[in-house]
Amino acid sequence: MSLKLFRSTGYSSILAPGETRVATHPGWMILAVSLWIGFVCNVALWRELRSLAGPGTGRALLTGVFIAAACGAVLSLFGWRRTLKHAATLLLALAALIAASISVQQLPIGADLLDQGLRAVMLPSWPSLLRWQFPALLAGLGLLPMVWVWQLQLRRLPGPQQLSANVTAMLLYLTILAGAGWLVMR
User: Fold this and answer.
1) Whether the model pTM is above 0.85
2) Is 24 helix (H, G, I), strand (E, B) or coil?
């Protein structure tokens, strides 16, 4: 006679915590964060849309595709279980900081933007920092998606499957990056 320490009913729920089938694939988070940075944090696109689809809307959309593909490639590089959320948080914070700074200072978008200096693009002057728009933009563009990223449960893939997904996604994003870069430079 054997001793049974635990009784098993054989019932398995898909709602059990930690269930891998319910969690989101890491690729979907990479795509969502990349699209957020490329299009929502794209000050040039919002300025063109505010002017009722001005002549630069196509170029602003292409720039958004370029930025989203670049972010997707970087996040695919760091697409491992222990590094993905940290890399996404860093990219979201950087994109929100740059977008809020450009928007609050009303800096012109174009080749002249880099002539302003990296410090001026990333951090506005003290009076601009103290206005309510800067913290509101930082919270809306950076803090909200960061909370989403950290609350999202990601599927844990086995090592070879995760490596395959990362390499495939990186090649896809680099292809899109090259195509968008070629179109932007034309």
Assistant:
1) no
2) strand
